[in-house]
Amino acid sequence: MTLEDGVFCGPYSVFTNDKYPRAVNPDGSLKAASDWTTTPTRVRRGASIGANATVVCGATVGCWAMVGAGAVVTHDVPDYALVCGVPARVCGFVCPCGRRLAGAQTSADAVILRCPQCGREVALARPVWEEHAAALTEVSLSAGPAGGAR
């Protein structure tokens, strides 16, 4: 498992290391160290893992992403994504300051979201936005200035 600089891991956060864990082999003999197959996990710079969240091995949590308390991460999490639930699903995008991003301006290759707290603008690759936009109700696309903060 790799935790990059600035990662926050809340209390009782869990990282698994084997996709198919068993204490014994099918014949009943105890597994030896050579019987285990560990799978790497990576949490990228500035990401936060909430209390009691579980990150299943093989997943990468993107830069500045936030995993909600109690979530179970089974797939990669995009940069700046907020994921919640079991299994974890993208439910928004967050600023490096931790607040939910709001409003959206589009260009040919990116979607720009703005933080209502600090004013920072975050650019998401258009394919990332399009993959998750249907599930987002807090952020709306507009041709005008970013807005819609709550």
The overall pLDDT average reads 89
- The radius of gyration over CA amounts to 18 Å
CATH level 3 topology: UDP N-Acetylglucosamine Acyltransferase, domain 1
Secondary-structure element pattern, one letter each: EEEEEEEEEEEEEEH
CATH architecture: 3 Solenoid
Q: Spell out the CATH superfamily.
A: Hexapeptide repeat proteins
Q: Any idea how many domains?
A: 1
In the predicted model, the low-confidence regions spanning at least 5 consecutive residues are: 138-150
Class in CATH? Mainly Beta
Approximate strand percentage:
25-35%
Number of strands: 14
Helix content: under 10%
What's the end-to-end separation, in Å?
Answer: 36 Å
What structural class should be given to the helix and strand makeup? mainly beta
The shape is: elongated
Main sheet?
5 strands, mixed
The helix count comes to 1
Strand order of the largest sheet: 2-5-8-10-11
